[in-house]
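User: Please fill in residues for this 78-position structure.
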């Protein structure tokens, strides 16, 4: 069980790194990388950025749950 959570933690960590690097910084972002300029006129971010935000939060929740699960498993292991 500990091995499963460890592998899941490593995978989600790598995915989180990639997702954070895709987010918009001072300049571009995901939308500018693929041609840019396709943003909604309502002052919000593009659909791609909103979906990227949602996916990043979801992966972050899984990452956090893995850390908590590993901590609990190691605390009650012995």
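Assistant: Residues filled in for all 78 positions:
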């Amino acid at each position: 069980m500990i091995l499963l959570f460890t592998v899941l933690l490593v995978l989600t960590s790598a995915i989180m790194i990639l997702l954070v690097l895709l987010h918009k910084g001072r300049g571009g972002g995901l939308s500018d990388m693929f041609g840019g300029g396709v943003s909604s006129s309502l002052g919000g971010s593009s659909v791609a950025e909103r979906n990227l935000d949602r996916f990043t939060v979801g992966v972050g929740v899984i990452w956090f749950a893995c850390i908590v699960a590993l901590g609990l498993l190691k605390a009650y292991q012995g």
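For context: The CA atoms of residues 7 and 32 lie 33 Å apart.
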